[in-house]
Amino acid sequence: MNTMVIEEHWIDTPLGRYFAKSWTPKASAVEPSAPILLFHDSLGSVELWRDFPHLLATATSRRVVAYDRFGFGRSSSHPGGWSVGFIDDEAEHSFPVLQNALAFTNFVAFGHSVGGAMAAACASRYSTQCEALITESGQAYVDTGVLEGIRQAKQFFESNNQIDRLAKYHGDKALWVLSAWCDTWLSEDFASWTINQSAPQVLCPQLVFHGDRDEYGSTDHARYIATLSNDSSNLIILNECGHVPHREYPDVIVRETEKFLRHQIPLRQK
Fold this sequence. Notes:
Layout: E1 4-13, E2 16-25, E3 36-39, H1 52-60, E4 64-68, H2 86-101, E5 107-112, H3 114-125, E6 130-136, H4 144-159, H5 163-170, H6 174-185, H7 195-198, E7 206-211, H8 219-225, E8 233-238, H9 245-248, H10 250-264
Parallel strand pairs: 3-4, 3-5, 5-6, 6-7, 7-8
Antiparallel strand pairs: 1-2, 2-4
């Protein structure tokens, strides 16, 4: 029996269309709860989450929503005005559009990689509505480890004719996606960025995942992010794990997320 409602959403704005997808467990013994909003990484998209949203929705009995940022996946090309303030721009401009179109008020923010900073920015900016913050492989600042990982990735994509791998998910926007990631993080203008600028105050409980072999940031980033919240904070360092824990250890991420949410914001019985 199919116990999940999966929907695609096209959200029109004056600047273009967002593509989003939601996974909603069918009616159960609990009241509808705040959905989990997924923020993808610098090369990511809805489709690159693969089956993780379905697994997460099933385990938590919550609606899970993923969306493509402008310039990524099936959303419209970026309308221009890209800047080193792109993390804050996502929280200030994109989030309210999604919130209104998908009809939710309270939410759980879950972000992977730079999506972790975007999730934290939303948790900070909408502190009365964000019930919990979850980050995975997040970066807290720009350091030599982050920059070296990005330089190596850029060289890999450019020298091995790998742009077709990105085009599979981003179409003719693939070169822009790669440039937006690499050129922004490697620029002098972005060198002084820290997550505190984007999330000066987080009031909700948080859960922080990080792999001990993450190629885009050491575990020091996770320990730094774990200090953001004025509420409780849980830090999980995953052994033998790289930059994509939800793909490398999906069972662990789903299990620990469900346990965290169950303890911090229990589901309400009907």
